[in-house]
């Protein structure tokens, strides 16, 4: 599929709230949806803190019940580009996935341009091309898992973790027990998917 077709599809998703393209296994939505049974979903996001000359990344892994499996925050100094922040978040999510080798994985982020770049065979052509190609290679090494886009509303847990990076010295990672500041948001995102108030 040509780059222009992808962009038109994503533009339609923004207008309509969701889009489905069965030929290319694309389904876009604005709320977080749990993966099917037996799969894990890895959400990622990046945030720029210009005043501190750094970016923060957040990664969260959840299962089919919405349960927090693991996640964390990490900061990278001397960066100020939003696109670099999102790509670094994607790369960190793949690094987390390398420790989840026995699971089938779905990667999900809210940066449409990054998702498009990862899905297309052609090179990105941007100043971030080398980093994007590195992430593509890492994804191939773990079996070329599915990569999807979700609106910001559906990526709030990863977004909060990315923002949390501003308050840590380097990196924080949690397994099985979510940080307390995420508990309400985790519950809320799962309830929204179920259609509960």
UniProtKB/TrEMBL annotation:
CDD domains: RNase_H_like. It holds the Pfam family RVT_3. Residues 43-165 form the RNase H type-1 domain. InterPro entries: RNase_H-like (IPR053151), RNase_H-like_dom_plant (IPR044730), RNaseH-like_sf (IPR012337), RNaseH_domain (IPR002156), RNaseH_sf (IPR036397). This is RNase H type-1 domain-containing protein. It comes from Cinchona calisaya.
């Amino acid at each position: 599929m040509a780059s222009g077709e992808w962009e038109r599809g994503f533009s339609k998703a923004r207008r309509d709230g969701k889009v489905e393209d069965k030929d290319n296994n694309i389904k876009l939505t604005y709320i977080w949806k749990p993966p099917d049974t037996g799969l894990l979903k890895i959400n990622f996001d990046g945030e720029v803190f210009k005043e501190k000359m750094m970016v923060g990344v957040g990664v969260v892994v959840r299962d089919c019940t919405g349960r927090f499996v693991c996640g964390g925050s990490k900061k990278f100094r001397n960066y100020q580009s939003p696109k670099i922040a999102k790509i670094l978040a994607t790369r960190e999510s793949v690094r987390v996935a390398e420790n989840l080798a026995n699971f089938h994985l779905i990667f999900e982020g809210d940066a449409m341009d990054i998702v498009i770049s990862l899905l297309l065979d052609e090179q990105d052509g941007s100043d971030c091309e080398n980093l994007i190609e590195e992430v593509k290679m890492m994804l191939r090494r773990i079996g070329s898992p599915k990569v999807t886009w979700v609106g910001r509303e559906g990526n709030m847990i990863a977004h909060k973790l990315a923002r949390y990076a501003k308050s840590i010295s380097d990196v924080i990672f949690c397994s099985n027990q979510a940080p307390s500041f995420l508990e309400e948001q985790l519950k809320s995102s799962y309830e929204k998917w179920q259609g509960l108030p």
